[in-house]
Specification:
88 residues; mainly alpha; globular
Amino acid sequence: MSSAESDLRVLVAAKTPFLELLDHLKARAGGDLGGFQLVAMLQQEAGISFTDSREMLAYFGAEWTPNAEPSVINARWDAIVEGRLTGR
């Protein structure tokens, strides 16, 4: 596991808000993060299911413009992470 993968796992385990996590991943990708890349990173590096990863992607439009309030996005992410950590 690379240090980048390990960093993502640590951020997810620490229940980092999704918008902060997204900023981290965009910076890691040099500012050029695509939707498919986000879904793949969440699946492969953090163990988030395809369905949940794709659901988080749906909260954003072009140039990562949120389609919902940050509190809604982060609340859904919290539920996904909690379910992953507790096995639900």
